[in-house]
């Protein structure tokens, strides 16, 4: 099974952290539903070209958070997510993405006003695209 | 950690070459890759592990046991698959099938179905004489033979040499599949960076007969970053050498300096705190890391 995780190799954020954040987001957002059997540690490591040490750590952390469950000899499954957790985690994956964008802007000395205007434009553009896309269907 | 191969202060001296002292523990259940330039002692290390050579001093253990007598040696070697760097010329006269029949005799766990599966996946014609096979086909045949008895430990010395890209992909897939069973271990020597990226959990750097370091791959790749900074005002080379994990600094032209740090997380913070704007940042390739390590760690 392919898991939609995209790694940023130019970031100094450790791989295990990037994977944990994204996998957690997939679970709490409901894209991976309760009871889904995740790939084996070796399989996910192959997909993401990272070592099994990293994936084992990710699975262990998410298991400790109660988002995953491992059954001996059966594999690792998505556990049930409480509604309150869903809200708590929903923004957790979005915030770092915005922070990365701010970093990129700061590298070229953007002002606060410039950043805000870029953000507004980006939002407006996406919403327009979405409504157009919806219209065609 | 459970250890598959253990080297304790192993040393071997030859007329023009000194290997060691080597201190090394290969963890069981993982893929470890020895990376190093030609002549760094990778192949000799494999040969020492299998007692093809005897060390001048030090101890070697396989699965926690020393090869003290022939009985133990045979029993331990039956659990290992060893692919040497060069194919054996003395076998050229026999066909693939003849060699398989000969090898089978020594391995009680030889699995005929597995052997024929591998031969089929690799598209090898075992009726050919080994000396008549192309370099690539011979490599694939030898790989099939070392895998056919389902060894617990694979020692692969430059496994992909001579393979075309498609066969190389097959090999990667086969090795990944091999690891799916529990407590399987691979130790491989390679110069192919992509091979290490796709397969390895741990990396051992070797140069000049010495081990430069043993690393967890993702940690290593995550820690070594290059930062590009414009030299201006009080941002001089002198100050940039204070970056955490500083390894190397070079002029890139156009007023840009490239700084390599082996502690990217702290370095990133340092640049922010010092108010130095970073124009670019990327992780390093393994060969770049090796080059810096050879420069800073190995004194010949």
From TrEMBL, chain A:
Q: Which UniProt keywords apply?
A: DNA-binding, Transcription, Transcription regulation
Q: Which GO terms describe its molecular function?
A: DNA binding; DNA-binding transcription factor activity
Concerning Pfam families, the annotation shows:
GntR
Q: Which InterPro entries match?
A: Tscrpt_reg_HTH_GntR, WH-like_DNA-bd_sf, WH_DNA-bd_sf
Give all residue intervals belonging to the HTH gntR-type domain. Answer: 13-81
Q: Name it.
A: GntR family transcriptional regulator
Automatic annotation (TrEMBL), chain B:
User: Per UniProt, which keywords does this protein have?
Assistant: ATP-binding, Nucleotide-binding, Transport
Name any one Pfam family assigned in the record: ABC_tran
Its organism's taxonomic lineage begins at:
Bacteria, Bacillati, Bacillota, Bacilli, Bacillales
- Kindly indicate whether the keyword Transport belongs to this entry: yes
Which CDD domains does the protein's record reference? ABC_DR_subfamily_A
Residue ranges the record marks as coiled coil: none
Tell me the organism: Paenibacillus roseus
- For this entry, the protein name equals ABC transporter ATP-binding protein
User: Ranges for the ABC transporter domain?
Assistant: 4-233
UniProt superkingdom: Bacteria
GO MF entries: ATP binding; ATP hydrolysis activity
């Amino acid at each position: 099974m392919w898991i939609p995780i995209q790694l940023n190799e130019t970031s100094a954020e450790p791989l295990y952290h990037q994977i944990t954040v994204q996998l957690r987001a997939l679970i709490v957002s409901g894209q991976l539903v309760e009871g889904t059997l995740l790939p084996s540690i070796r399989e996910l490591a192959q997909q993401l070209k990272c070592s099994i040490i990293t994936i084992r750590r990710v699975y262990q952390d998410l298991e400790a958070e109660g988002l995953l469950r491992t059954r001996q000899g059966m594999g690792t499954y998505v556990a049930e997510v409480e509604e309150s957790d869903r809200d708590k985690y929903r923004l957790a994956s979005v915030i770092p993405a915005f922070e990365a964008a701010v970093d990129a802007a700061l590298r070229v000395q953007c002002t606060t006003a410039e950043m805000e205007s870029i953000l507004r434009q980006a939002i407006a553009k996406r919403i327009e695209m979405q409504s157009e896309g919806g219209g065609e269907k | 950690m459970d250890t598959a191969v253990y080297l304790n202060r192993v040393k071997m001296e030859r007329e023009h070459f000194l290997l060691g002292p080597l201190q090394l523990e290969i963890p069981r259940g993982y893929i470890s890759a020895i990376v190093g330039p030609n002549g760094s002692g990778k192949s000799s290390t494999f040969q020492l592990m299998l007692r093809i050579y005897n060390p001048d001093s030090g101890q070697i253990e396989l699965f926690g046991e020393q090869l003290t007598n022939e009985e133990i040696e045979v029993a331990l070697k039956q659990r290992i698959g060893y692919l040497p760097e060069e194919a054996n010329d003395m076998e050229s006269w026999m066909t693939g099938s003849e060699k398989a029949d000969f090898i089978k005799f020594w391995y009680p766990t030889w699995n005929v179905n597995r052997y024929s599966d591998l031969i089929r996946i690799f598209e090898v014609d075992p009726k050919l004489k080994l000396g008549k096979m192309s370099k690539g086909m011979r490599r694939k045949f030898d790989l099939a033979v070392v895998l056919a008895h389902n060894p617990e430990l694979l020692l692969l010395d430059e496994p992909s040499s001579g393979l075309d890209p498609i066969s190389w992909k097959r090999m990667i897939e086969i090795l990944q599949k091999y690891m799916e069973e529990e407590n399987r271990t691979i130790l491989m020597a390679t110069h192919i960076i992509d091979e290490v990226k796709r397969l390895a959990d741990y990396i051992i750097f070797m140069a000049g007969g010495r081990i430069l370091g043993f690393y967890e791959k993702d940690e290593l790749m995550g820690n070594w970053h290059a930062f590009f900074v414009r030299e201006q005002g009080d941002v001089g080379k002198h100050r940039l050498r204070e970056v955490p994990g500083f390894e190397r600094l070079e002029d890139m032209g156009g007023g840009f300096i490239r700084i390599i740090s082996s502690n990217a997380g702290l370095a990133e913070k340092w640049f922010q705190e010092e108010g130095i704007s970073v124009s670019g940042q990327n992780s390093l390739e393994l060969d770049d890391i090796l080059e810096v390590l050879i420069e800073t760690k190995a004194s010949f």
